[in-house]
Each structure stands twice: as structure tokens, then as C-alpha cells.
Amino acid sequence: MEESQNIEWKESWRDEYIKWICGFSNAQGGKIYIGTDDRGKVVGVVNGKKLMEEIPNKVRDILGIIVNVNLLDEGGKNYIEIEVYPSTYPVNYKGEYHYRTGSTKQHLKGTALTEFLLSKTGYKWDAVPVDGVSAEDLDKESFDIFRRESLRTGRMSKEDLSMTNEELLDNLGLLDNAKLKRAAVLLFHRKPEKWITGSYVKVGMFGKGSDLLYQDEIHGSLFIQADRVIELIYLKYLKATISYSKEIRIETYPFPRDGIREAVYNAIMHCDRAAHIPVQIRIEEDAMYISNNCVFPQGWTAETLMQRHRSEPYNPDIANAFFRAGYVETWGRGIQKICEACEKNGNAIPEYTLHPGDIMIKFTALNISKHQNDVLDDALDDVLEVQIIFEIRKNNKVKQSDLASYLNVSVPSIQRTMKNLVDQGKIVRKGGKRFGYWEVRD
Known about the structure:
Elements: E1 7-10, H1 18-26, E2 30-34, H2 48-63, E3 68-74, E4 77-84, E5 97-101, E6 104-108, H3 110-121, H4 140-152, H5 158-161, H6 165-171, E7 175-176, E8 179-180, H7 182-188, E9 201-206, E10 212-218, H8 222-237, E11 241-245, E12 248-252, H9 257-270, E13 279-283, E14 287-293, H10 302-306, H11 316-324, H12 334-345, E15 351-355, E16 358-364, H13 368-394, H14 400-407, H15 411-423, E17 427-430, E18 437-440
Parallel strand pairs: 1-2, 9-13
Antiparallel strand pairs: 2-4, 3-4, 5-6, 7-8, 9-10, 11-12, 13-14, 14-16, 15-16, 17-18
């Protein structure tokens, strides 16, 4: 008989085989036979009675589970049968989680481990309680940021926010039997990396290819990271082009601030922290890339993201706190808001790329010269509208040719702008052509 999902053959006992028992327990259960070759033929063991006592005790002490250990005989040769039952909760071997699949044992790590723990416990990753930290250990500035932003955006009232920090945590669903959840530590602890490695944001400015010009890391609670990262990007990494139209100062950035803000907050909020990899923002002259590790619902693609879709946050407790602070919306509207911000600013719609275990969004920089020409044209049109209305108020019978002369523009420009004013209902023509006049509608 060949080895299978539920059968493993071993010629002699080694304590490392407790990992195999761990794997069977975390999967469908199974049996390990000691004293057999890899085809299941009995070769015997010489210390069967001793193993009958040692194996159950070692498994109990290391894994915390009970297994049945039986001494069997075939053709005068003793061999051991270890019967392992599937566990309803995750079983670990000295902090490692192993899983039996097919005829192999897998050491679960990263996303695979996260999904396994979720399936066994029913917890979302950010809802798992954390030992060794309490509400008193959390950061005052992080609570101040949350209270300031949630009050400013109207997501919570003064009465809601007047409670103690611990009451606030409980109100946000960040406590589990008086223990802080991972979400609470990430959101409000000054040094969350003490518990969750890689919980920070990394920003880099790149030249051509792999040429890294300079970089920054934003550490601290997620609220501190969210509070500082956008200002850092726009003050240090991006340059605004300044132009003027008469008295109007026009400041143009290559990327829409609202869209970048939404994308960065989404990356911080939805990041798969079990991968221990920071949110990464790569900035180039003509593009910005924002990436984070993630676990997507089964069957989701980049096309799914660009369509209307349900809100299904990977870290729902973190997402709820970000919503209460006014950082993000609900109903899966984040990507829609990003696209709308790009369209409004004149940027192309961003591109999403899904890799196994991570997602990346690419923003293409604005064509500044073309955009500025468009903005200048709009600004000039606005100025001309104001000037025409001013002249009409002085003389409601003024001719278009006279307006062109007064304002030093062409007659077609006056005609086009006055048509726009009529269409907008800002001015209206009264009377006939010979004795008519203009009326300004306030």
C-alpha cells in the first residue's frame, strides 16, 4: 500500500515525526506506522514497548493533543500504529504549523498560514487577541488623531469621543474578552512592529531603472502612518508646477491628491500583515506604484475591482476604525473614488495588477504642459465672463464689438463667452435687436 493523505510509513521513530502528527491533526487525521518500509512492509521495531510510553507523552507535551498508540504484530515482528484524529483548533509544533496534504507534510507560512488559522478559528486575522499588551500601553497621539479626524468628518460625535480610551476600543469592537485585538495594536500602538513585523510604509524615489535616489520609512501606529504619509509624498517627493493667469496662481501636481490618498489608505487598511512586508510606494517621474500584500476573495480579478463590487475587507476591524476616522468609505466605493479623482484631475484611469499574494496600482503622471494649457483656457474663460458681466452692469446696451475693444480680445471670443453666459442663465437678452438690452441674473 502506498503512502496517502491518511497513511505514513516510517522504519524507525524520530522525535521530529511529531511534526507529521501535527500535520495530520491539522488536516483530516490519519495513521503513522513505525517499523515499516516506504511500501508498508513490516520490518519491525526493537523498542516497541518503550515507544508505547514515550510517544503519547511527547505528543501531549509538545502538541497538547492525545493520540492513540498501538503495538501491533505481524509475522513475529512488532510495529507501532499512531492514530491521529483531526483537531477542531489549530495545533502547532513549537510555534510552527504543519499540514498534511496528499502524501506530503507542508510547513504553513505567510498567506497559507493566515487562511488556515482563519478556517480553524473563525477569526479574521486582525481580530486575533494579543497577549502582553493592554490599553494603557497604547499611544496618546494615535488616539488624538482618531478623535480629531472622526470629529472633523462627523463620523462620531463629541459625546461618542468623550469616553475613555478603553471604552473607545470596546466601542470600536477592538477588544476580545478584555484583550486587545491585533487591530487595536496596529491602529493605536506606537511600535506595532514589536508584535507584527513589517507594519510600516516605505516610500522611494527612483530615477531610471533600479536607480534609487532617496527613500523614507513611516513607522508608528496605522493612524500615525495615515496622518503623515500623504504630506510626506506631496511635500518631499512631488513637485508642483506653478503658472499664472493674470492674478490667478495655478498649482499643478502630477498625481491627484484625493486619488493617491484613497489608494494609500486602502493599502494600509487591507494589507495582509501576516506576510510581514510593508506597504511600498515607488515614485518615478512619470508614474507612481502603490503595492501591498493581500488575500483576495476567491475568483476576484483586476477586472472585478474595476466593476461595482461588494465591500469585503480583509481586515474588517481596521477598516471599521478607518471608516470612523473618515479616512475611507464603505460599500466598496474606494476604487470608484480613485478613478473619479483621476478623471477630474486629467489623469488616466489607474491600472491594477494582481500577483499571487499582492496587489499593485499604477498611477500615470499628468501631462503637465497640456493640462496647464487646458486649465489656463478655463481660467481665462472665467475671467472673461466676470469682465463681461461687469461691463454689462455699467452699460446694459453695450455692443459685442465694443466689449471686444474694451477687453482687448477678439469678437468671436466675446460671442462664445456670452453664449456660455446665456446658456448658464447668468445673462439674458431683453427686447429686440435695435432697442434691446442685456440683463444680469444674480
